[in-house]
Each structure stands twice: as structure tokens, then as C-alpha cells.
Specification:
CATH architecture of the largest domain: 3-Layer(aba) Sandwich
Number of domains: 2
Low-confidence stretches: 22-40, 49-171
Radius of gyration: 24 Å
Largest sheet: 10 strands, mixed
Structural class: alpha/beta
Strand content: 5-15%
Shape: globular
Length: 463
């Protein structure tokens, strides 16, 4: 591996040689000052970044790391140990490459440390280095233009990267634990699963699915079969823990569905995603409706709503709300159940939301995730959620939608669930026969397949 000083000297020499001898540049023409200056500036920036304490620590031992095997479906990403990595990034920025070089850890080595991408420095967040100027994620100017705070984005120090292959092939995937900081300082944790050779630009413009769990759940509510099915369909998958849930922070404020929608906006902005497929299960669907009402569909390609009626409370003219929490008295009963014991509540909740039996190990995971929540916070959040009426919003949703529900839902009558596809202009509906509220746990392979087939035919038709 070239040392930074050697790399810088080489690039300066190449630039001088092009000026004197008319050496052809990477784009096929003679070496112009613009291209040469860009490569030298990139080399100078690389040398400066390499010399910084944080980069020195992160890169220690990089030369000894084994190369990441290449995927037969995508070109081999340059290794961080390759002296041409920074030059390749410069060529990509000048249009010489359509895919950004991928900066990866040794699959069996240490995880990445916290890497901020705020400010005007080149984005160095794993696993990618943006290829063009319009792919920079969180510059101060862009944050000001969007009238929102610059977001922090970094990998979790506690979670190593996982490296997997499918059926013994070399076409594997990466799964990383990531944190994003919202504008009130709350840290959200999520998992990002994507294919080796993942392109940042491709990921932000098409092919990302965000899975939003329901009340008292977490990202681990989605079984591996769901992640595998979406991944096999060509999609990268982001599964966050909503605030007050899972491993995300649990502050003493923000007990509103609208606050969760603002958190979702922070997540999408931190990755600069576009045309995202948002999948909301139960209360997760309400988070999507709030997001669309507050921020519009600028970053959204399509929405999937899973077993959730647009109003939980019952009122005059609306008897299709929740079967369990539909007025002040029923809310009091659930609050009392939470305070009486979270373990018993978790068992009862699973019994009411499942028809198909699950493996004991999965039930233990679901219960363990519920036990991470605080009873008072769940009660406060449900108090806001249950009276929110999203029916007036539905006719104004302007992206393709998919409505998935179980015909044996223990939470809502079928009429309340079918109201979505009857009211949203571009919404198809699929019934999961014999399934309950947690249909993504009861038929996970079909759940993923329905989303992939719908997204391919209704959202990403032009891709």
C-alpha cells in the first residue's frame, strides 16, 4: 500500500507529465488542468485525512486485512488497502465511473468507529464513498436548504459487521448496525442490510425498503425470512427501532406519532434516500401517514400498510376501530395491564396478535424486545396514537400503496382494514387468509414476496 506522501507525489508527477507530454487522461482525452487538479486535490485531501488521528486509528491493520471477495453480479469494490482507492474516487467524481468505490472492514475484524458525515468534508461513512457531488449526504448548505438540522450517521461501536453469503456463492451481503441522531438529540438504532457492491447512488434513488415495527415491538419483530426475501428481490433493507422501543433512546418527551414521523424523516435524510418503500406495521402505518401529512412524499416511492385501520377509536359513524383499545376506558385497562407486569402483558399481546403458532425462540425474542420498553412510555404513546384520525388524509396520498391484512386479525375488523384500499386512490389490497395481526411473522416468505412483486410492478417500473 502506498503511503499518503508517496501517493500525493505520484499524483503530482502524473499531473506534471500530462502537462508536458500530453498523456491521455482517464476519460480518453489529454490531461487537462481540471482533471489533474481534481486528482491532486483529492490526493492532498486523502493525505490530510489519512494523517488525522481518527483515520489513523481506523486504518490501523488495514493493509493486513484480506480482500473482500468479489460478487459475480457486480464489480469488485476497491480495497481500502489499494493505493488507487482515492484516485478511483476522483475519477468517479469526474464521471469516469458509475459506481462509487466501497470502503469495507475486514469481515472478521474490528467494527468501524463512529464516523460523522456532517459538514463539508468528503463523506467517509461506511460502507460507501459517494461518487458524485450530488450524492453528498449532509453538507451544511443542503441541510439549510431543507430547513432541517444536519444529521449524524455512524456505525455502532458495539456491533461488528456481519458478512454472509447466499448458498455458498460469492454473492453475499453486508449487515451493519447504525445510529442516527434526531434534531432533539435522541439516538435511533437501526440495521442496514444490503448486497456486496452496494452502490450509494443506486441505493438512494431506487431499491430501499424501510421496515417500521408496531407499538411495543422493535426491528427484531421482523424475522430473518422477511429480510432474506426482500434482499433476494434486490432491495436493501433498513429496520429501525422507533424511539421508546428496542435499542433506541427512550427520552422523557415526544410521546406523539408526529414525533416518530419526524424521526423517520431524520433517518431518510441521513441516508439521503429517494423513492423509498415505507412498510408500516400496525402503529408503523400511522407513522407513515403522519410523515406524509407533515412532509409530503418527496422521498417516498410507495407505502405498504400492514393490518392497521385509519382510526383506532370508535365514534359516531365509525365502528370499525380497534377491538382492544377504542375509548378512554379500554385505554385505562391496557395501561393497568402494562403497569401490572410487562412480562404478562407481552404474553397476552402475543396471544391476541397470533393465530399461527411460532417457534419458542421467536416468542422469546418478541417478549424480550417488549421488556425493553417502559410501561409509562408505551401508555403515553398509545394515548396519542389511538385517537388519531387519518381518514381525511387517505384520499390525498399520491404514491402507490399496498394494503396487507389478516382476515383473522385480533386487532381490527376486516371492514376497517379494507377502508384503506377503498379510499386511497392508488392502493391495492392483499388478504392473508388465516393470519392475524402479526401476519409478517405468520407468513414471512409470502409477506416479503408480496412487497417485492408489488414494488417491482408499481413503484420501480422504470428501473
Amino acid at each position: 500500500m502506498l503511503e499518503p506522501a508517496e501517493f500525493l507525489a505520484r499524483e503530482q508527477g502524473r499531473a506534471q507529465a500530462r502537462k508536458e507530454g500530453g498523456v491521455a487522461d482517464a476519460g480518453g482525452g489529454t490531461g487537462g488542468e481540471e482533471v489533474d487538479g481534481g486528482r491532486v486535490r483529492e490526493a492532498e485531501a486523502a493525505a490530510e485525512a489519512w494523517a488525522s488521528p481518527g483515520m489513523s486509528e481506523a486504518m490501523s491493520g488495514a493493509a493486513a486485512a484480506p480482500a473482500v471477495p468479489s460478487s459475480p453480479k457486480s464489480p469488485k469494490p476497491p480495497s481500502i488497502a489499494d493505493g488507487d482507492t482515492w484516485a478511483a474516487a476522483a475519477e468517479a467524481a469526474e464521471g469516469g465511473s458509475t459506481e462509487a468505490p466501497v470502503l469495507m472492514d475486514d469481515p472478521g475484524g474490528s467494527p468501524r468507529r463512529s464516523v460523522s458525515i456532517s459538514g463539508s468534508q468528503p463523506a467517509m461513512s461506511p460502507p460507501i464513498l459517494p461518487a458524485t457531488a450530488d450524492a453528498e449526504v449532509a453538507t451544511e448548505a443542503e441541510a439549510e436548504r431543507r430547513n432541517q438540522p444536519t444529521q449524524a450517521f455512524h456505525t455502532s461501536e458495539a456491533s461488528p459487521w456481519q458478512w454472509e453469503t447466499d448458498d455458498g456463492s460469492r454473492d453475499g451481503r453486508m449487515s451493519e448496525e447504525v445510529e442516527v441522531q434526531t434534531n432533539d438529540g435522541t439516538m435511533l438504532r437501526y440495521t442496514h442490510t444490503y448486497r456486496l457492491g452496494y452502490s450509494y447512488l443506486a441505493g438512494r434513488r431506487a431499491g430501499s425498503v424501510v421496515l417500521l415495527h408496531g407499538w411495543s415491538g422493535s426491528r427484531r419483530s421482523f424475522p430473518q425470512e422477511v429480510i432474506d426475501g426482500l434482499h433476494a428481490g434486490g432491495y436493501s433493507v433498513l429496520a429501525p427501532d422507533l424511539r421508546f422501543h428496542g435499542d433506541s433512546d427512550k427520552p422523557g418527551h415526544g410521546f406523539h406519532v408526529a414525533r416518530l414521523a419526524a424521526d423517520l424523516r431524520a433517518l431518510l435524510a441521513s441516508m439521503d434516500l429517494e423513492r423509498t418503500v415505507l412498510v408500516g406495521c400496525s402503529m408503523g402505518a400511522a407513522v407513515i401517514w403522519s410523515y406524509l401529512e407533515l412532509f409530503g412524499s418527496e422521498r417516498v416511492g410507495g407505502c405498504v400498510f400492514v393490518d392497521q385501520a385509519p382510526l383506532q377509536d370508535r365514534c359516531e359513524g365509525w365502528e370499525w376501530g380497534s377491538k382492544g383499545i377504542f375509548d378512554a376506558k379500554s385505554l385505562e385497562r391496557v395501561t393497568a395491564s402494562l403497569n401490572a407486569g410487562m412480562a404478562e402483558f407481552a404474553d397476552g399481546n402475543a396471544a391476541s396478535c397470533l393465530t399461527v403458532p411460532l417457534m419458542p425462540a421467536m416468542l422469546d425474542i418478541l417478549k424480550g424486545e417488549t421488556l425493553k420498553c417502559k410501561p409509562s412510555q408505551l401508555a403515553a404513546l398509545m394515548r396519542d396514537h389511538t385517537h388519531q384520525d387519518w381518514r381525511p388524509l387517505l384520499p390525498h396520498i399520491d404514491v402507490p400503496c399496498l394494503n396487507l391484512y389478516g382476515d383473522r386479525s385480533g386487532c381490527f375488523p376486516v371492514e376497517g382494514l379494507q377502508f384503506l384500499s377503498n379510499t386511497i386512490p392508488n392502493c391495492s389490497s392483499v388478504t392473508f387468509e388465516g393470519c392475524n395481526h402479526w401476519l409478517y411473522l405468520e407468513e414471512p416468505e409470502r409477506f416479503a414476496r408480496e412487497i417485492v412483486e408489488w414494488a417491482n410492478s408499481r413503484v420501480f417500473v422504470d428501473v
